Amino acid sequence: MPRGWISGGLPAGWEDGLFPNQRAMDEQGTKGLEEERRLAYVGITRAERLATITFAGNRRLYGQWQSSLPSRFVDELPEEHVEVLTPPGSTAAAMVRPWHRSGSVQMHDR
Hints:
Layout: E1 5-9, H1 22-45, E2 47-54, E3 58-61, E4 64-67, H2 72-75, E5 82-85, E6 105-109
Parallel strand pairs: 1-2
Antiparallel strand pairs: 2-6, 3-4, 5-6
């Protein structure tokens, strides 16, 4: 029986505040953050070859545009296993963390 899937996308919303979830961190502190990190690890390691992680540089929240940064978990991925892709016309490059060249799609190749 296969342990996971060959390749696929993880749920969207890998932005700080969404994943890890701000409420989990507010209510449970470090324990909540570690549980969110555990969920990220499980999702990534279920992929046998390729896991696609996406995040939005801008998102509408209650009718207002909100800028966001990629999840802190993206920074914890080994850089040699990450390929950054930027959709045409994207302005995400100005919002990503320094070691990301530009992008809104993260790929972790196991």
